[in-house]
Write a structure and sequence with these properties.
Elements lengths: L22 H20 L2 H16 L4 E5 L1 H18 L6 E5 L17 H10 L7 E6 L5 H12 L3 E6 L14 E4 L14 H20 L16 H15 L3 H10 L4 H10 L3 H10 L4 H12 L4
Parallel strand pairs: 1-2, 1-3, 3-4, 4-5
């Protein structure tokens, strides 16, 4: 595939004069381009949904999510994966990011690393990637060799593979390899080839949907509340107790007591208050329901033959 022919390398006719207009007009041009992103993603929600459903099933069974990319694409993966543990209470090793050039490439461009196909496979081997895991290859162009190497290895051992690219061609090198191709093109960049702009925004929004959708499906969210939030600081403790209050309607005294007894576990506190169960029983209900509070409540109701 010729690099100059890639969608992400095309010139944008609407911003050709961006260096000749006022600052305000320049920002209007960029803003108009940004507005195209969400509309383009909307047309591909069915593809994102299919990937979320399949990944949630694997994740619930113990598989890991592994993001893999280079440059801006790799950084988008790191941004999303790093937020999953504090937001959804998942173990840090359950959502991992790999990047061409390693961690140093997060803050310092290492463009040559992305051309090494073998590094993608090596990085997966180094984390003992298995058929139970899910690989998400992120590449604006849809042809990054590092990502291709990782996908080929993941496919060879029978793992699930997803792509997040800004190339809608199903025959592009990465889209054609994976089980769940998500290719979304929002048009040429305001600055030609600067994929940190619209392409990066596409990737961020899609990865947000992917990880959030997966966590909702696996019980990390109750209604639209983060019931597995990690209480690492004062702000998060206040948020956690507010979530418990919102769901249970309990008094501050009862919330504080449950929160302390549960070792600051929000989901467990909620279940203890709503069911009146002791900590050990509530833990058992949660474990048997895969961490879903609503499923645990239903199980308790069935077990006791009464409505909650």
């Amino acid at each position: 595939m010729k690099i100059t022919a890639l969608p992400t390398e095309q010139r944008n006719a609407d911003t050709i004069g961006i260096d000749e207009v006022s600052t305000f007009e320049m920002l209007q041009m960029i803003n108009r381009e940004d507005q195209k992103v969400a509309r383009c993603i909307e047309k591909h929600l069915d593809k994102v949904a299919a990937a979320v459903d399949a990944a949630a099933e694997k994740f619930a069974a113990g598989g890991r999510i592994v993001y893999c990319g280079a440059g801006t694409s790799g950084r988008m993966g790191f941004m999303d994966s790093s937020e999953c543990p504090p937001t959804f209470g998942v173990e840090r090793e359950r959502v991992i990011s790999l990047m061409a050039g390693g961690l140093v490439a997060l803050g310092q461009a290492m463009e040559d690393a992305e051309d090494k196909t073998e590094l993608g496979e090596k990085d997966l081997r180094d984390i003992n990637f298995s058929k139970h895991d899910i690989l998400v290859g992120i590449a604006a162009s849809g042809r990054t060799p590092y990502v291709i190497g990782a996908i080929r290895y993941a496919k060879s051992i029978g793992a699930m593979t997803v792509s997040v690219t800004c190339n809608e061609d199903p025959k592009s090198p990465i889209n054609s390899l994976v089980d769940y191709p998500i290719g979304i093109y929002a048009g040429p960049e305001a600055i030609t080839g600067s994929t940190r702009m619209k392409a990066g925004t596409v990737q961020k929004l899609v990865l947000n949907m992917f990880s959030t959708g997966m966590m909702v499906k696996t019980g990390k969210v109750y209604s639209n509340l983060m019931v597995n939030v990690q209480t690492k600081n004062e702000k998060l403790v206040v948020r956690a107790k507010g979530i418990i209050a919102e769901i249970t309607g309990a008094s501050e005294t009862d919330i504080n007591a449950a929160f302390e007894e549960s070792d600051n576990n929000v989901a467990l506190s909620i279940l203890m208050i709503l069911t009146g169960c002791e900590k050990a029983k509530a833990q058992q209900l949660l474990e048997h329901s895969g961490g879903h509070i609503k499923r645990a409540l239903t199980a308790h109701q069935v077990e006791n033959g009464c409505a909650i």
